[in-house]
Amino acid sequence: MLDMKVRVALIGNPNVGKSVVFNNLTGLKQHTGNWPGKTVEQKIGFFEYKGHEFEIVDLPGVYSLSALSEDERVARDYLIHTRPDVVVDIVNASQIERNLYLTLLLVELQLNLVVVLNMYDVVRNRGDKIDTDALSEKLGVKVVTTVATKGEGMQDLRDAILEAAEEHALSKERNERRELHLPGDINGGDHLHYHPRDHHHGEYERLKPPNVKYSPEIERKLKQILEILRDKRDILDRFPPRWLALRILERDPEVMTLITDPELQRQLLEVTV
Amino acid sequence: MKVTERIPESEEDPFDEELAIDPQIVLADERYEVIGNILSDVYEPGHGKWQLSDMLDEVFLHKYLGVPIFLVTMWAMFTFTFEASRVFMAMIEALFTWLGGFTSQIPIPWLASLVTEGVLGGVGFILTFVPPIFLLYLAISILEDTGYLSRAAFVMDRWMTKLGLHGRSFIPLLLGFGCSVAAVMAARTVDGESNRLTTILVSPLMSCAGRLPLYILIAGVFFPNLAGTMVFLMYIIGIIMAVIIAMVLKRTILQEESSPLIMELSMYQMPTAHGSFRHMWDRGVLFLRQAGTFLLAGGLVIWGLSSFGLGGYGVPVEQSFIGIIGTSIQPFFAHLGFTWHVVAALIFGFVAKEAVVQSLSIIFAVSGETAIESALMAVLSPISAFALMLFVLLYVPCLATIGAVRKETGSWKWTAFSVIYQILLAYAMASVAVFIGGYFFG
């Protein structure tokens, strides 16, 4: 099933204990360098678990993925173009409200997510509790709690990564009937797909429908945008379609530059929130 | 995917309409709503374990209360600075008057004048402002150490983003309360080339500590009962002007997307006496060093220019070099009610704003006035005095700031722009103040 090395990316806000998790997972098997052409540090580590090989890339700590700062750009480009098999989102559980913002952005990308509620001891000491099962169900991702500084929950995390990787591989195997891949079909989001530029498997990926939806009004706008982009395969094939629609609705400067046809541009700009 | 500039602007720039409602903010709100809904189902708060820090934030970061609380805090800070420093200022003044009693006895008249009027009148006078400057730094340090100042930035950000400004700009701007050079340098942290440039251009408008001596002098002489409030008002006008100018720049020559401000708000902390005094000292000492070096040198230059004229030493002060310079430019400021003394002081103010007060003190001392307070009362009306404060608030802070702007923008063109717009703005606002003031009180 998992015949290749599983690619895992680690992401999270700054100061959430991401490096501690990274070190816990990889031990000494890591090397550092720079992202190609950037001044941002790149750390890659390896580990084996239950007979499978994992490669972990530590993405820069970011609050959002707006591509305004170099850190954000590195993270965003990697997630879109390399499309790791599993993305581990480290959340500071004691600041969960603010941290989940990035998580939602990752959900928008329809990534294969594992959410780690790190620093969970702070929440516990406060006398609070987070219902991880319910959170997992609402976000449609796996959720584990950890206290990375004490090594707590690392086993759960490895299990979750492995499980997520296996499910991911399964979903790809079922992905045979290409003729059904119609863009713009938000509700049956099961059929949405795109082709990541640098993906090591080099194949189309079947995207799970997103669990988190926004207000009906916004969802309608997204559908409208995808309707306009219906035959623009050159753009559609490069990104997860729903994510693309969201960025266009947000007028993301980087995505907007990809739309060069003035007529198309005009049509898209007519869809406003 | 490469980052590129905005789509080339056509005649009808489709991005213009964004200024009405920023779609990024709409979606960010949407996301936070989703998060709120999720958390209300999955997060089970323990009972009675409200953290003090959360409770304080509930109030300080309140949607509507946040800004008034910030303003009241600022007002309290300036009133405290002014009131608490009074007695210390009087003590330092008495000390220098006492010293002056000896130095004026020096048998060589020019040396007596140099030491008494140039050194004691110049640097000594500036040193009387050490207490308010130190106390202001102390107040800022305390606010900073408690964690309130970063929250103030957060509170202001809400409004700045509404005005289409970049939220992160507010942090360099806050630094501008201490020193404009620091503020200009801190603009590096702002994302986006044009956001950065805007911040560099407007941060000198934030009132720095160098301007405080003049406010305290003028407010104390002309508005004794409202002195703290007047100083506070100057700082507020500085903020408002910075915001307005930034807005104008953003809508005309420096357009760029703004990004939401997300910052780490650490827990509130009890400031330690050690920490706060330490910060106060580190910053205040800069002022002392300045007073000891180039304000001292500047004082000697100003003394020389006001004691010597075409006729050599001892000419009446109106015929001294400084008098000649001041008188020749004074007509431009006649409508503001500035006499040549004031105009000459403003010219020296280009070097550093502290020099304005210093020059006034020396010029009046050389012309034989014993007390600068009564001398000021004699040459300025309250309205002109207010206009003077405004002018000092808004025109170029100091040479060092101009240097910093040049270094950070890397362009003489923007540096020149910065200097010129500030002078024009200062001139215009002072004129408006005199006009309106004259209409109501004249």
What does this protein look like?
The complex is a heterodimer of chains A (273) and B (442). Chain A has 273 residues and is α/β, with parallel strands linked by helices. Chain A folds into two domains: 6-172, P-loop containing nucleotide triphosphate hydrolases (Rossmann fold, 3-Layer(aba) Sandwich), CATH 3.40.50.300; 179-270, Helix Hairpins (Orthogonal Bundle). Chain A contains eleven helices and eight strands. Chain A has a seven-stranded mixed sheet with strand order 2-3-4-1-5-6-8, sandwiched between helices. Chain B has 442 residues and is mostly helical. Chain B has 20 helices and three strands. Chain B has helices at residues 23-42, 52-60, 66-103, 109-127, 130-146, 148-162, 170-175, 180-186, 193-202, 212-222, 227-251, 273-292, 294-307, 321-333, 340-348, 354-366, 372-379, 382-394, 399-409, 412-441; strands spanning 43-44, 308-309, 312-313. Residues 1-20 of chain B have low confidence and may be disordered. Chain A binds chain B through residues 14-15, 63-64, 66-69, 73, 77, 80-81, 96-98, 100-101, 104-105, 126-132, 134-135, 138-139, 212, 214-215, 218, 246, 249-251, 253-254, 256-258, 265-266, 269, 272-273, and chain B through 1-7, 14-15, 17-18, 21, 23-24, 26-28, 30-32, 34-36, 38-39, 41-47, 49, 51, 191-192, 257, 259-260, 262, 264. Strand 7 of chain A pairs antiparallel with strand 1 of chain B, so a sheet runs across the interface.
